[in-house]
Amino acid sequence: MELTQVVVRPDVDGVRVIACSGEFDQDTLHPLKAAADEATADPDVRRIVLDVSQVAFADSSMLNLMLMLLRSGRLVLAGPVPVQLEQLMEITQSRPLFATTGGIEAARAL
């Protein structure tokens, strides 16, 4: 199993970047959920960039968290989106819901 890591980068111009790497399921999601809850609760954060480019595995619990962040109206995914996560979003027909860029800097610029 790959080490799961969540890194919250310092906010720049109201944009918070949460970088994820490794495998995310109901047992490993807690650090990402904590970072997401903190970002959505902060009124100074106008955009939340979720860097998913290093996600090795994601199940429905991560997708549910991504949908929760989407409901905040501030989420942008920074990719490229890994094949397994892309397939999960396609199977669940949620792919069109997510604004996605090719990287963190492009997501910051939106």
Q: What do you see in this structure?
A:
The structure is a single chain. The protein is globular. It contains four helices and five strands, in the order ββαβαβαβα. Helix content is about 35%, strand content about 30%. Strands 1-2-3-4-5 form a five-stranded mixed sheet. The mean pLDDT is about 95. With about 110 residues, it is α/β, with parallel strands linked by helices. Strand 4, helix 3 (about 85-90) and strand 5 (about 100) form a beta-alpha-beta unit.
Q: Which terms would index this structure?
A:
110 residues, alpha/beta, 5-stranded mixed beta sheet, 29% strand
In short:
The chain has 110 residues and is α/β, with parallel strands linked by helices. It has four helices and five strands, in the order E-E-H-E-H-E-H-E-H.
Topology:
Blueprint: E1 5-8, E2 15-24, H1 30-41, E3 47-58, H2 60-71, E4 75-78, H3 83-91, E5 100-101, H4 104-109
Parallel strand pairs: 2-3, 3-4, 4-5
Antiparallel strand pairs: 1-2
Number of helices: 4
Task: List unreliable stretches of 5+ residues.
Answer: none
Mean pLDDT across residues: 96
Shape: globular
